[in-house]
Amino acid sequence: MIVDLSEVRTETELHRKLKFSFGFPDMYGMNWDAFWDAITGLVELPDEITFTGWEHLESVLPDDARIMRDLLDRYLAEPYHSHQVIRFE
Description:
α2 (about 30-40) packs parallel to α4 and α3 crosses α4 (about 60-75). The chain has helices at about 10-20, 30-40, 55-60, 60-75, and strands at about 1-5, 50, 85-89. It has a single domain (about 1-89), classed as 2-Layer Sandwich (Barnase, Chain D), CATH 3.30.370.10. The protein has a 3-stranded parallel beta sheet, with helices on one face. By secondary structure, it is of the alpha/beta class. About 15% of the residues are buried.
């Protein structure tokens, strides 16, 4: 799966993009705690994810990019998810 972040400008847009891309439920809270809950208990992420436009995201939303990457690194560190691949391009 490819998730293009090159047009994201706000945290709200980022969470909308994540919600749509990964099929998060309507109750998704549009924040990082809700993101963690969604990826660890509500949906199953694809085995391969590539986030394109990562440099753009880091430039417009550096704190959110760091948090998102930290959470995804934490997700991949869990034994059940260790076979999955997430790229940031």
